[in-house]
Amino acid sequence: MATVDVSSSRFKAGRVGSTAATVFAEMSALAVATDSVNLGQGFPDYDGPDFMLAAAERAIAEGVNQYPPGRGTAALRQAVVDHGRRHYGLDYDPEREVIITTGATEALAAAILAFVDPGDEVIALEPFYDSYAASVALAGGRIVGVGVFGPDFVLDLEELRAVVTPRTKMILVNSPHNPTGTVLGRPELATIAELAVEHDLLVVCDEVYEHLVFDGVEHLPLAGFPGMRERTLRISSSGKTFSATGWKIGWALGPAQLVTELTAVKQFLTYVSGAPFQPAIALALDQGDAWVAAARDELQGKRDRLAEGLRSVGLQPAIPLGTYFMTTDVRPLGYDDGVAFCRDLPHRCGVVAIPHQVFYARTGAGRPYVRWAFCKSDPVLDEAARRLAGLNAS
After folding, report:
1. How do residues 234-278 score in pLDDT, each as one tens digit?
2. Are 381 and 305 contacting, i.e. CB atoms less than 8 angstroms apart?
3. Quick one: what percent of the chain has pLDDT higher than 90?
4. Phi-psi sector, 200: left (phi>0), alpha (psi -120 to 50), beta
5. Among residues 195, 283, 194, which one has the least CA distance to residue 242?
């Protein structure tokens, strides 16, 4: 009987993607086995607005349970367009320039598979969300990281300029940035825009944390910069904004030709997405601005709450300006390897975090850093701080 060599390169989804998936699974299993407080995975333990949840219940009860239109319901596409116009002054055609996807992850995968050919290079901010490397590898491309490295986690613009080659097809921009919490400002975004225009590059912007920004910082969509509207796909999701990560309702906006190509791939991934959730998300986008603002302020308080707990055990967090996550260097606790620290932590005090190393393509990069999720209820964060205090006694 013929055998398949699953170790061969054509069956690998990318080192970062496969390593991250393995470590996430390991940490989740450790959390269960040790009854730990899980600050590893980036999803909240509280729900979104009641009116949104009720709208989904009504949709199910009223029979909105079959395939929706391939590009998403007209109401949701219009709500996505209205949202972008209201918050950023960006305008799109809801019929031709918007598609609803099964979360932002599918939109990202479909965009990469649609436009990246074998041998193409995709520049991404490193460390990066684990699906990026996997999707680029599936397309036959090569991911090229540009450092957003600690301890300051600032984008290295000189490296960015240096890595553009004739093989570069796309720049993948994640801001607010997972896992570091960095939010790119106008100077960094202007440099990315200039390079994209100069070298005629496509740009895919992962903006899922667009509303989770703190301390008065503003999220600036790259599509609003000169020369960028016609070459940029903006990708976002309801999951982070409305605390409904399990609904998997995302979207992509961009020029009609780009959206059409993305749609051609998306239809062979999930075909369509979450019919009863679409009217609920449309309602939330139309009527949920006040809820989002309050949730953002509450999340900033959670950030500060966890930061205080980490400081109390000798860890100095890099305070994020956005996202669900903050980072610490674990060397003050006697570790030089975040993976070893995260494997020991559940046994030492019953808390789970994620090592930064799984988000890098470069071997050894991010070695002393650990990511902590603060999108948890206050009692959970307080319990984590109480348990972490045991590190000083162990």
Report:
1. 999 999 999 999 999 999 999 999 999 999 999 999 999 999 999
2. yes
3. 90
4. left
5. 283
215: which 2 tokens? 């301390």
Q: Report how far apart the first and last C-alpha atoms of the chain are (Å, whole number).
A: 54
> Does 6 score more than 50 pLDDT?
no
**Whats the size of the chain, residue-wise?**
394
Domains present along the chain, CATH in parentheses: 9-47+292-392 (3.90.1150.10), 50-289 (3.40.640.10)
Q: Distance between CA 293 and CA 302 in Å, rounded? A: 14
- List of residues 6+ apart from 62 with CB closer than 8 A: none
- Which tokens sit at 140? 């036959």
140-150 burial: b if 16+ Cβ within 10 Å, else e: ebbbbbbbbbb
Residue 342 phi, psi dihedral angles, 5° rounding? -70, -30
* Residue % of the chain over a pLDDT of 70: 95
Q: Which of 129, 149, 169 is nearest to 158 (CA)?
A: 149
Tokens found for residue 10: 């054509």
Tokens at 225, concatenated: 């910069």
